[in-house]
Amino acid sequence: MPFDVPDSWVVARLEDLVAPEKNSFADGPFGSNLKTEHYTLEPEVRIIQLSNIGESGWRNGNKKYTTFTHAETISRSKVSPGNIVIAKMMPAGRAVEVPDIDKNYVLSSDAIKFVPSTQMDKQFLLYAINSSLVNMQILDEVQGIGRVRTSLGKMKKYYVPIPPLSEQRRIVAAIESSFAVIDDIECNKIDLRSAVDIAKKRILSLAICGRLVPQDPNDEPVSVLLDRISTERETLIKAGKIKRSKTDSTVVRSDDNSYYENLSDGWTVCRLEDVLEFEQPTKYIVKSTDYNDDFSTPVLTAGKSFIIGFTDEEFGVCTNLPVIIFDDFTTAIKYVDFPFKVKSSAMKILRAHDVDVKYLFYYMQTIECNHTTHKRYWISDFSQKLIALPPLNEQHRIVATIKLAFEQLEQITENLS
After folding, report:
1. Strands, sheet with 333-336, edge to edge from the N-terminal-most edge strand
2. What contacts 8, CB < 8 A, 6 or more positions away?
3. Burial class (CB within 10 angstroms; exposed 0-12, middle 13-18, buried 19+) of 386
4. According to a count of CB atoms within 10 Å of the terminal CB, is the N or C end of the chain lower?
5. Residue 364 burial (10 A CB sphere; 0-12, 13-18, 19+)
6. Quick one: how many helices (H) and strands (E) in the chain?
7. Domains observed in the chain
8. How do residues 61-114 score in pLDDT, each as one tens digit?
9. How far apart are CA 163 and CA 226, in angstroms?
10. Number of Cβ within a 10 Å radius of residue 183
11. 3-state SS class at 77
């Protein structure tokens, strides 16, 4: 015995388990016996190709046919629905049951036909051939480099443990029940990932509406904070360090003397440009494309991607952190708390004034902008967006709560992998 089995079981070779009829264990024709010149556009005899032998069963794509007449010349390779076919390669040993989609089939040169004995449970044998026990035997004897393959002669000699017929059927039922549970889990994973994404958006929505954390009446009202920011900005404008905005940033109250409906106490409304200052990244742009993972300073690129490489260039590294990186063309945003350089001039560096920059980063993810090709969002649109701003201490509490919730949701996502 090549391995231990229960007393009522035996170990047999695959060739001992086929139907007692001619060509019940056969491979496809030589390449010269089934060439493209033998193909037909008419759906006569379906050619079973490697691409039809899928990991989870029969794949019905890539349909090719030969004529009834030519199929008779390679009759040993003819296959009927319900037969098992085994791939010689890509990967060697993978097996599927042939469906009754077509009435007539014939093997290609890289497939093997296996017709089980009626004394065996066909589904049990299919699971056995695809098991790691048989697969390890195949891998021990494959030949070739890259596209390794097996052969009909080798497949005939591989061992399979065989239980009594009634137990074969019980095993098949147990396998299929387990597979059904696994399929449900996979479906639930997709649903759960979607639920995680929805939960993150909901958390952000609650945060910017003042419903994520409790308010503290002792917090400094944000209107006082904005007055302080405005005073600092005026000082910098007079000193010539920054320019005054060309647009009127005054936020107009509604008729009921409130900015937003049900705005929490101590909150106010302002525009992004009132609390963020954007900087062109000119002095941080990498001129060389010589990147290396061994270098120390990461280089950020625009769009959805993040780090494209590292550079050892010492000068022009952004170290005044943390900041928000804003892609002026796509509105993609990134929170950055490590020294960096940039690749594109389309990226803006946004710095906060006496505001929790992480809170602004989360808030900006809730803002929608209509996408127009090559539109300069920050200058023309994004900087004018209204935001609800809580007191600074509450901003910190909101950020901490979001961070904890996101970490827990991300842990759930990781556990699904």
Report:
1. 276-279, 347-352, 323-327, 333-336
2. 163, 164, 167
3. middle
4. C
5. buried
6. 10, 22
7. 10-163 (3.90.220.20), 199-416 (3.90.220.20)
8. 889 999 999 999 999 999 999 999 999 998 999 999 999 999 999 999 999 999
9. 79
10. 11
11. helix
Residues present in the chain in total: 417
pLDDT for the residue 103:
92
Give the pLDDT band (50/70/90) at residue 279. Answer: confident
Query: What are the start-end ranges of the H helices in 245-329?
Result: 272-275
Q: What is the pTM of this model?
A: 0.58
**Cα distance between residue 135 and residue 128, in whole Å:** 9
- Residue position matching structure tokens 């009594």: 164
For 366, the 3-state DSSP assignment is coil
| Structural contact between residues 225 and 352, judged by C-beta atoms closer than 8 angstroms | no
User: Closest Cα partner for 85 from 65, 45, 63, 58?
Assistant: 58
Within 254-391, where are the H helices?
272-275, 357-364, 377-380
What is the distance between the alpha carbons of residues 325 and 413, in angstroms, rounded to a whole number? Answer: 26
Residue 304 burial (CB count, 10 A): 9
Each residue's pLDDT tens digit, 304-337: 667 888 888 767 899 999 999 988 777 788 999 9
